[in-house]
Amino acid sequence: MSKQSIETSGLTLAKGTQLRGDDFFEVKVMDDITVAVVCDGVGSALQGAQAAKHTTNFLINALKNRPKSWTMEKSIKHFIENINRVLYLDSMAEYDCEELVTTLALVVIEGDRLYGANVGDSRIYLHRNIEGNVQLTQLSEDHIMDEEGMENVLTAAMGLEESVSPYYFENNLSAGDLILLCSDGLYHELSEDELKSDLKMGASFLVKKASKLHHDDLPDDTTAIVLEIKEVDPRFRLKQSDLIVREHYKAGEVIDGYRLIKPLIQNKRTWLCEKRGFNYVMKFIPYEAMDDEMILDLFVKEAWMAKRLKAGFFPKAVIPKNRTHRYYIMSFIEGQTLKAYSAKKPLSVDLSVALACFLLKMSNFLMKYDLVHGDIKPENIIVTERKGKLVFKMVDFGSITEAYSNVTRAGTPSYLAPERFKQAPINEQTEIYAIGVTLYEVLTQKFPFGEIEPFQNPSFEKSIKAPSKLNPKIPAWFESVILRALDTDTDQRYKNYSEMFYEISNPLKVKPYFDKSTSIMERDPLLVCRIGFIGMVVLNIVQFLWF
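The chain above was modelled as a monomer; its predicted structure follows.
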């Protein structure tokens, strides 16, 4: 489930006047799954709160890093059994009895599928509106005594015995579904009718409503998490499609009505093709995806991004509904890469300014979706002609990713900002640096810090050679913009796209750029002369008065 398709809320309040209770909860929304956990530390156990926190943190981290070859059911059951055994053995070692004891309610959302498990009496509910008929269904199973007067006695809990048998379930999800995880402190205070009517208000509303019933003096710790499904992630369905993946394709072959003409790149996975007299680009998934789920995930994400990002910066892309092979289709753009175009001669200043505006507008468009391109460089930009005028198109979707994600060195080394080599997350400033490198390269046919090889740890200590020394046609204001975009000090580099775009659009307002090593005399010789003149006058006056 993508971060844009689910909203979460959670709150816990301690009983009475206590500042902290025995409940603990956590929600983690990741790119491919969402995990939510509520644990209610058993009050009769001395270390119930510690058990609740330990269980929650363990399950979140374990599911985040689960083996890709495991099913979700195997992952959930295996990790629950592991942490249960740890709690029990630690209790026996430290206290010689069961003290690290907690209940558990856990859900995992992947695509349009809900996976869940519980141990004890913490509950999981599904709220669904079916054609105006609202239903609230308890999906979990209470592990409690069924004898009258013994309803609060648990028959199972995490850490109570060395082995545990969680109640496990799976369900399909629909847009608009609400999922509630809660401790018994909530459902003992609010009826199912109240939960049904108020669930859409969120976790905080529910917990505070329960607290108000007791004038903010709750008889038990009370916790709730509410997950609202805005839309079901379509990438999951794309991934599950049963499609052909072949190692080799050949010219003349017809795939779903598209006739393959020639491969466009060396690996022969991207082809120029034709259908009904029109040319297209067909991009096949790498054959290695047959044995590597990560490659499959990346291609599905790429295809979805290509289809989703409908703007003039990119070629139009579609994922045919009735395709038989795993690929997607892009419109064919007649032209050549900016790398090849600028290799013949440096780009003109006017065209370079237009390129800068194009890249900044494209990047700003992606930021509206909380995305960054991740691999801005001349090889990924096509120079084409429209109405007698040269324009640009960005043709690579494979590197587009979430802003501020930690993708280490993903991208091309020569265009990576210095902080990216130190594991900094990708963001607007790192993208601005890549734009700066691109502008420097197309204007000078050189890299500001030389070409950087993969896995090289470059030094960014030396000063960049002013691009005007390599290309005298570059005006001073544009040089200042480029150098500021390339500053290795993030405090000096442009902070966001709009700041850089403003200066490019207003050349007269661009302040001269100087790096830290530039002397005051070089930065402002007139100021130095004025200071020297004033100093001489003061010195003469002092000498006159002295003698």
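The chain has three domains: 6-232, 241-331, 336-516.
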